[in-house]
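input
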Amino acid sequence: MKKVFLTMVTALLCASYGFSQEANVEIRVPDGYQGFIEQENRFHLWGEEKNSVALSTTHGFYFNGHTFVGIGIGLDGSGDHVILPFYTAIKHVFLNDRSVSPVVGVRMGSYIGDDLGTYADLSAGVRFATKRDFALSISLAASYSEPFYEYDYEWNADYSTSIEKKNKIDFSGISLRFGVEW
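output
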C-alpha cells in the first residue's frame, strides 16, 4: 500500500512539474485571506470501517504568495460513526505564478466524535489556478485519527454496569481530495 501511495504522489508531482513548464500566463498570485472547501473519499487501512466521506473547510491567510496558514473544521462520516476534526493547516504552493502548480499541506489537531482524539493529515497534489481569485485542486492525503472503541453497556440487577469493548473504530487512511479555493 505504501508503494502505491508513493507512486501516486510521485506521478502527481511529475505531472504538475511538466504542466508548469508552460509560458507564464497572468495568474493571480495568492495573497491575503483565502478560504477552502474540500471533499474527500477516504479508504481506511485498519479497523472495522472500510470507507468514509469527509467534507472540510479551512480559512486563513497566504504569506508571501506561497505559504498558507489557517484553521479548519471537518465532518467525516462512515457507517454509524461520525467525527468532527478541527485543526491548524499549513499549505505551500510551489510555482504559484503558473496555472498548474504542485502543493503540499499538513493539518494537525484533534477530533470530537464518539470519543476525543488526535488528528493529523499530510497531503500532496496539484493546484489549478485561474486569472481571478479562484483555484481548483486535487491531492492525495494520508490521514491519521486516533482509534477509539465501541462499548456495550449492560445494567445488572444490582444497578451496576458491566462494560465490554466491541469494535475498534479507526478513521486513519489514504484519500483522494478535491478542493475549491476562493
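quick obs: The mean pLDDT is 84.
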